[in-house]
Amino acid sequence: MKPFSTEPVTLIEEVFPQDTNSYNTLFGGRLLSVMDKAAGIACSKFAHREFVTISIDTLTFKAPARQGDLIEVTGRVVFTSTHTAGVKVTACAMTKSDWETRVICEGYFFMVAIDSMMRPIPIPQLDPETDDDKKEWAIAEEIRNNMLSKRKSEQEN
After folding, report:
1. How many other C-beta atoms are found inside a 10 Å radius of the C-beta of residue 118?
2. Domain boundaries, given as residue ranges, for the chain
3. Helices (DSSP H) in the chain: which residue ranges?
4. Which end of the chain is more exposed for a tag (fewer CB within 10 A), N or C?
């Protein structure tokens, strides 16, 4: 089974007053919500399946976005296992005064494909081709292996 699309997904939203804190910067949870949405859409586009989030890892907030900025969030499937897709999501903020773009947050979202009964189902497998693709695969695979190792350790205790 081959992927339906390996193209990234990009969402763009404006930061409105209700999205900000008392410093007029974007709430982290609001940004996380948009990033999660981009990850889910990227997975659905990749596999033509429904997905739910099972893990978010190495999420790094690098800079704030301010009220009035545009947020551009891009998700790209970088790893797959039998039922799971790993998506690297990058969020950038753009000011409308000069359209300068800066990365404000990055992270890896792991999503599992589900059927109508919420059971995991198989997905197409990604075949990393370029050196960059292979590097991202290795990063995501290490994150997933650490997650599984931690889960196993918690179950044993």
Report:
1. 9
2. 9-156
3. 28-47, 131-156
4. C
The single-letter code of the amino acid at 64 is P
Residue 46 tokens, joined: 């990749």
136 with 74: CB under 8 angstroms?
no
Span 74-87, pLDDT tens digits: 999 999 999 999 99
**Cα separations (Å) of 40 from 24, 84, 128?**
28, 12, 20
Q: What pLDDT digit, counting tens, does each position of 85-115 carry?
A: 999 999 999 999 999 999 999 999 999 999 9
Give the single-character DSSP code of 55: E
> Which two tokens mark 45?
């586009």
Task: Evaluate whether the domain defined by 9-156 bears CATH number 3.40.50.720.
Answer: no
